[in-house]
Amino acid sequence: MKAFQLQNSFGLENLKLVELPEPSPKAGEILVKMKAVSLNYRDFLMVSGKYNPKQKLPLIPLSDGAGEVVAIGEGVTTWKVGDRVMGAFSQGWLYGAPSRNTLKTTLGGPLDGTLCEYRIFPEYGVVATPEHLNDLEASTLPCAGLTAYSAIFPFGNIGPADTIVVLGTGGVSIFALQFAKILGARVIVTSSQNDKLERAKQLGADETINYNEKQNWEKEVLKLTNMKGADLVIEVGGAGTLSKSIACTRPWGIISLIGVLAGGESNLSLFPVLMQGIRIQGVIVGNRQDFENMNRVLSAHKMKPVVSQTFPFEKAVEAIQYLKDGKHFGKVCISIE
Ligand SMILES: NC(=O)c1ccc[n+]([C@@H]2O[C@H](COP(=O)([O-])OP(=O)(O)OC[C@H]3O[C@@H](n4cnc5c(N)ncnc54)[C@H](OP(=O)(O)O)[C@@H]3O)[C@@H](O)[C@H]2O)c1
Predict the structure, then answer these.
(1) Cα 103 to ligand 1 centroid, rounded to whole Å
(2) Right CATH number for 2-143+286-335 from 3.90.180.10, 3.30.390.50, 3.30.70.890, 3.20.20.70?
(3) CA 240 to ligand 1: nearest atom
(4) Hey, whose CA ends up nearest to atom 11 of ligand 1?
(5) Which end is more exposed in the chain, N or C (fewer Cβ atoms within 10 Å of the end residue's Cβ)?
(6) How does residue 266 score in pLDDT terms, banded at 50, 70 and 90?
């Protein structure tokens, strides 16, 4: 089978298309023909060696993918040949809180990922693909979709009277916009580009702010909320944006700390956090049970992930570069037909 692999060293230039033996499932395992995979910023960091410099090589990157069961091992009862499935981001984190060990069972590092034609999963390592989604759409769910779902549903504590601020228009952020609109919340989206803000409006964004044109965007949020502040901020910028997010969150509001697109180290003042009782909630994707709960929401509302760009398998390196350049809106996918 064909796969993309980092062999001896990190770097996009070292991600090579290789030929590997086609695996066959042992007892309790299934073989999935991968049909589509999607990219997360984490994949770029992983390939560059910045996510985990101690990651062992060789590595097949990418955490997210969808496909079809083509063989089952002895004793497998949950799946049959022909079932459409998606891999769970953390293979060993099935429900409840994660343990340090289950957090080490993630696809695309430390475990081999999905950028390959065939992949073995344990029976419990996949969930069923919602019927209304094609494989490209489904491939976007395991990391970006579930992260946004976790931030909005289990951790977000929001409803129709609440205002949510979504930073940027990348994969996680656009899912967060869609989930927040399902709950009837008011959503403010920020972006560096006006055409992306127009697209966000078409998806239901109530207010938009260009954070390049209005660098004090937190003040705009305060104005838009009659100086009350947002109930929830979907924080993907990290160190570079967190102090502004804190400044525009209402007392007792929540900041879902998800990403580090604008830096991961900070010496920000903690006073506003404690004086206003703001909850900074770290979010790390989610467990298998919440993956299934999210899929029920998607199916009930016929919600479709936003795929802005699809590359052929052979162009995987270009696809990762495209993601890194931030040209996309929503998700970037790779088709493996
Ligand atoms: N904790 C978790 O479980 C988890 C899960 C998934 C992702 N993440 C992290 O979350 C972040 C987003 O991931 P992603 O896959 O959604 O990334 P992505 O699709 O690559 O998102 C990129 C977009 O983020 C926006 N952005 C960049 N810098 C920004 C800034 N300073 N302020 C506001 N927006 C900014 C830009 O939007 P515009 O072009 O509109 O300006 C950019 O296009 C990454 O750091 C990723 O590692 C964490």
Answers:
(1) 21
(2) 3.90.180.10
(3) 31
(4) 259
(5) C
(6) confident
